[in-house]
Amino acid sequence: MGIQVAEQALSLYDLPKNASVRLISLSENEIYQVESPSGRQWALRVQRPGYQSKNALASEIAWLAALRRDGVVATPIPVPGLDGEWVQCALDPATAEPRNVVLFVWENGCQPTFSTDLQPCFRSLGAIIASMHAHSRSWQRPAGFERFTWNFEAALGESPRWGRWRDGLRMDAARIDLFGKTAEVIRERLEMYGAGPDRFGLVHCDLRLANLLLHEGAVKVIDFDDCGFGWYMSDLATPVSFYEHRPEVPGLIESLLDGYRSVRAISRAEEEEIPTFVMLRRLLLVAWIGSHAETDFARSLGGSYTDQSVGLCAGYLRRFG
Questions:
Q1: N- or C-end of the chain: fewer Cβ atoms within 10 A?
Q2: pLDDT for position 1
Q3: Quick one: pLDDT at residue 229?
Q4: Are residues 171 and 99 located together in one domain of the fold?
């Protein structure tokens, strides 16, 4: 944990003296709340080593800043360092390892949860997603723009970015066979679906509930750390991440679609493939939990997430296999 890195990073910004630093989230990255004696707040993200290049981080900020500037959606406001650059580098005093850091103005709001009525939130989010996709298609990306590509290979292939689904918790031979058949059907369907510019482009890729904020009736979108090039319809699957097995999910996806259609037309082929993107995401998260078993969040989900995926795989194969 890099509290010393975070404290050192404060000197790279024009921040009030004696600001306090408090870790609020530890998953892929470390997120710190920075607060001045007067009560002003910021969010400092200390990047995990080796995941994103400095240029990729700057590219992320370029898009989220453009989305806010162009009135598409409220996104975090980035804060440049003293040198004017969005991405700063601080040394870990314990290891002398360089760590990229980025700073944002604190965004007020609360995360939506399944204990509340999510229908209005998801209708609003669906419209926001459609507007983000329209922006993605028309936005002139800056020279050298660099983000990951989230295709099948990066998710469930032989060189997966978040680990292998086969290494998920509580895997056995029967589950490896079932999940493998599911992954193969996903691959076949996505090959038929295609990745032309009308279906594949710059997307958020991680619109789970933890990356949304509700504030004064509006939905804000945060954490673009995994944004990249992927299927547009995958953004309609990620809001139900970690809850794909719950009975409310079909109705919530309908709410997303209602909101999406209010901004942009959606073809029958796109709509029919959303279950494939939900299943793709589910297996990707089985892999993520297995490869991040040391984190508190992965431990909170544990092997039960794999257990609950068995029925989803069986249902998907009955429908599409």
A1: N
A2: 55
A3: 98
A4: no
Is pTM beyond 0.85? Reply is yes
Q: Is residue 110 part of a domain?
A: no
Same domain, residue pair 97 and 141:
no
pLDDT in tens, 182-222: 999 999 999 999 999 999 999 999 999 999 999 999 999 99
Q: Are residues 236 and 152 in the same domain?
A: yes
Give the chain as a 3 state SS string: CCHHHHHHHHHHCCCCCCCEEEEEEECCCEEEEEECCCCCEEEEEECCCCCCCHHHHHHHHHHHHHHHHCCCCECCCEECCCCCCCCEEEECCCCCCEEEEEEEECCCCECCCCCCCCHHHHHHHHHHHHHHHHHHHHCCCCCCCCCEECCHHHHHCCCCCCCCHHHCCCCCHHHHHHHHHHHHHHHHHHHHHCCCCCCEEEECCCCCHHHEEEECCEEEECCCCCCEEEEHHHHHCHHHCCCCCCCCHHHHHHHHHHHHHCCCCCCHHHHHCHHHHHHHHHHHHHHHHHHCCCCHHHHHHCCHHHHHHHHHHHHHHHHHC
pLDDT in the model for residue 321:
87
The span from the CA of 169 to the CA of 176, in Å, is 11
Read off the pLDDT of residues 42-57 as tens digits, 9 standing for 90 and up.
999 999 988 999 999 9
Residue whose C-alpha is closest to residue 124's, from 207, 217, 250: 217
What does the pLDDT look like over 247-265, one tens digit per residue?
999 999 999 999 999 999 9
Same domain, 93 and 182: no
Looking up residue 57, the CATH number of its domain turns out to be 3.30.200.20
Range of the domain at 19: 3-105
Place of tokens 């691959």: 187
Q: Which residues of the chain have pLDDT under 50?
A: none
Number of separate domains in the chain: 2
